[in-house]
Design brief:
Blueprint: E1 2-10, E2 20-23, E3 28-30, E4 34-42, H1 47-59, H2 70-87, E5 95-96, E6 98-103, E7 108-114, E8 118-123, E9 126-129, H3 136-142, H4 148-153, E10 172-177, E11 183-187, H5 189-192, H6 197-206, H7 210-223, E12 230-238
Antiparallel strand pairs: 1-3, 1-12, 2-4, 4-5, 4-6, 6-7, 7-10, 8-9, 8-11, 11-12
Length: 239
């Protein structure tokens, strides 16, 4: 399989700094395995930025040909954040999401995921979320205790139940068989909090290239208010 990707990030219209991180940071195309990841930091001051950069750098330290699973890459990111906190108490409380995809030469997508950043698959014009939101609201929805409408305004809708930077971490692992023509999106919640899934799908479907798709999504989030950092990565699959 050939993978063609692009990434884009914006501080938005409200925040002073960007606590998101994404890899790769440059566009590219290969007929070989590739790892793509996104992290959305938290912790106040510069700690969120530190956490997301530490986690994603550790997760991406070995190239895609190394025999390292997405789960182990995510755990490496977690260890890096824990070590940083142990060495500098001023960083205590920082954490980050981390959503990572290993795109293999034989067309498989192996996913390691923690937090509320998301990964989507666009196939034949239909958008499907292929990660789970690790949030209190998502858990309440799954139990049927609140409705989707209530979830949108729930006072604790931003409470994350799994985060990089904790000593006991349950990494979500999934695997998907890709097809030529598939388009994969990784994104921070700066996109999904501002742009509805149906609008994300329309932008992804219309864009002719990953670069156009990535920047169109960031622009849509900012046009809707840009209250958070927005970061996306788009990967196209071809034969």
């Amino acid at each position: 399989m050939r993978y063609t990707w692009a990434s884009a990030t914006s501080v938005g219209l409200v925040r002073d700094g960007n606590e998101d991180s994404v890899r790769p940071t440059t566009d590219g195309s290969v007929e070989a395995p590739v790892v793509v990841a996104i992290a959305d930091g938290m912790g106040g001051a510069v700690a969120g930025e530190v956490a997301s950069q530490l986690a994603i750098d550790a997760a991406m330290e070995q190239d895609a040909t190394a025999a390292i699973s997405p789960r182990d890459r995510v755990l490496a990111g977690n260890s890096a954040v824990i070590r940083a906190i142990a060495n500098d108490y001023s960083l205590a409380g920082m954490g980050t999401t981390l959503t990572l995809g290993l795109f293999t030469a034989d067309g498989k997508l192996q996913v390691g995921h923690v937090g509320d950043s998301r990964m989507y698959l666009l196939r034949n014009g239909t958008l499907s979320q292929i990660t789970t939101d690790h949030t209190l609201v998502a858990e309440l929805l799954a139990m049927g205790r609140i409705t989707p409408a209530q979830a949108k305004t729930h006072p604790r809708r931003n409470l994350i139940t799994r985060v990089i930077g904790t000593h006991i971490l349950d990494v979500e692992e999934t695997e998907h068989q890709l097809q030529p023509g598939d388009r994969i999106l990784l994104c921070s919640d700066g996109l999904t909090d501002m742009v509805a899934d149906e609008d994300i799908a329309a932008i992804l479907h219309k864009a002719e290239s990953p670069t156009e798709a990535a920047w169109s999504l960031v622009e849509a989030a900012n046009s809707a208010g840009g209250v958070d950092n927005t970061t996306v990565a788009v990967v196209d699959v071809s034969q």
